[in-house]
């Protein structure tokens, strides 16, 4: 199994090729795009703070929505938004049934410390169980169950912002996750494959619920440069901004851990995948399925972009991406969504 010597993508990744040095085409292309992608973004916080001022509205209870997982990245983001940029957030935490209690406690402690409103969205457990079952059992290897789930949680945030009339969402997704969102061709391809996967089950009710949720995407505008923030957008639209664009994103997990512990006694999860993250339990089963069926996970894709951006070493990524689930966990999760672990191999 050939794996890129710069990132962590294997030869089974769609569209990949390698040069004579073992470097994949995605890494080679990224080098040529790096300067172009860096242009047009904010380089200092003074200009950014001024651009954000137009979202401050005394007549509106919330200036923006901030999804919060309870992990280091999103917690650090929320502190900066409240204390440095002086915005009034509604904080949103999505619980799909397999969240870790430690993550939820982190969310609750930080919101109390910052004195901001928190809304916890309890997802329809029956729907989420079926979603995980469908995409874990699917033979469509391009679409990870984590991708399908992540989109549902993302759309929850969009729905909330629309409901409360909030025009801005600052989301804590990483450069790797943002790269997937910005790739419209890939997103369209994956959406089509998700739809086909659901149609093959013959479950019309689930299909209608799933597709209706996606109608909310008509409301979004995804930030691509400072002009999106400085220029007015359609009053019916909601601007989504990845927080790393503002240069207060840090990949140094140990530094973030120190800051968050000092600020509000942040606590890590005992075990998580990838290592050093705060993710739900179901990620273990989803990633087990992905590794068996395609030799890489949803997070290999994400981390490869972060490596190319120079924010994580390849060695650290490989270490974080080692899948060593606690004994009995995969079997329990498989039982909870009614799948046979042997079918995931």
Please provide a written account of the structure.
By secondary structure, the protein is mostly helical. It has two domains: 1-39, no CATH class; 42-272, HUPs (Rossmann fold, 3-Layer(aba) Sandwich), CATH 3.40.50.620. Helix content is 50%, strand content 8%. The chain is built from 15 helices and six strands. The protein has helices at residues 25-38, 45-52, 72-83, 101-114, 125-137, 145-163, 175-182, 184-201, 204-214, 226-230, 253-264, 282-294, 298-308, 314-320, 329-336, and strands at 64-67, 89-95, 117-122, 168-171, 220-222, 238-242. The strands form two sheets. Strands 1-2-3 form a three-stranded parallel sheet, with helices on both faces. 36% of the residues are buried. The model has no long low-confidence stretch (mean pLDDT 88).
Shape: globular
CATH architecture of the largest domain: 3-Layer(aba) Sandwich
Distance between the termini: 17 Å
> Mean pLDDT, as a whole number?
88
How many structural domains? Answer: 2
Largest sheet: 3 strands, parallel
Low-confidence stretches: none
User: What oligomeric state best describes the polypeptide chains here?
Assistant: single chain
State the fourth-level CATH superfamily of the largest domain: HUPs
> Percentage of helical residues?
40-55%
H/I helix tally: 15
